[in-house]
Amino acid sequence: MLTTRAWSCSAEPGYKVTVTNPTDAELVASCLAGTRESFDTLVERHQRHVYQLCYRFVGNHEDASDLAQDVFIRAYRGLRTFKGQASLGTWLYRIGVNVCLNKVGAKTPKPQSLDLLLAASDQRIASQAESAPDALLRGERAERVRAAIARLPKKQRATLILRVYHELPHEEIAGLLGSSVGAVKANFFHALNNLKKLMGEAGSDR
């Protein structure tokens, strides 16, 4: 996924991973001690989840890959600030959310269906046997949702993505966004209401 290796651990000998399946903390310590391959292992271990997070914000592979690479570059540069209070995965999510909010701008996720987004349901996309008109209608609705999400405030958009797509609890989202649980609940509530209003406006224009 990452096209270039944009990091190089500075040589500070003293720690090297010797176990077969090291923990994230052991890999972090090894990287800080000068073993660059340890960070490569961390990337391999977490890149799928980081990529999926970025994809939810931009909706296409190329931009998501670029953002994911930026997340890991920032993670490497700030590796010494990782104190281990939260898991490395949570720390990377926090970096990923910040990268996406700062760089994505008006780009938004491409939701799979209107019902999934508005009701936060588990409903799957219609069967592959759906008719051509049904498929076209579903595609049009997805584009309308995408356009509506682009008009949501950044934190509402981020809260919606993390809650609906990644099914994160309010407490974890609060930690990722640096806000209170109450603010997260309020953002999610307002995001859904604003999205419904925006979709209603889009429907009345048709």
What attributes does this structure have?
206 residues; mainly alpha; Rna Polymerase Sigma Factor, Chain: A; Arc Repressor Mutant, subunit A
Short characterization:
This protein is mostly helical and 206 residues long. The protein has 9 helices and no strands. It folds into 2 domains: 24-103, Orthogonal Bundle (Rna Polymerase Sigma Factor, Chain: A); 114-204, Arc Repressor Mutant, subunit A, CATH 1.10.10.
Give an account of the 3D structure.
- It contains nine helices and no strands.
- The protein folds into two domains: 24-103, RNA polymerase sigma factor, region 2, helix turn helix motif (Rna Polymerase Sigma Factor, Chain: A, Orthogonal Bundle), CATH 1.10.1740.10; 114-204, Arc Repressor Mutant, subunit A (Orthogonal Bundle), CATH 1.10.10.10.
- The chain has helices at residues 24-32, 36-58, 61-77, 88-103, 114-119, 132-149, 154-165, 170-177, 181-204.
- By secondary structure, it is mostly helical.
- 65% of the residues lie in helices and 0% in strands.
- Helix 6 packs across helix 9 (181-204).
- 30% of the residues are buried.
- Residues 10-14 and 106-133 have low confidence and may be disordered.
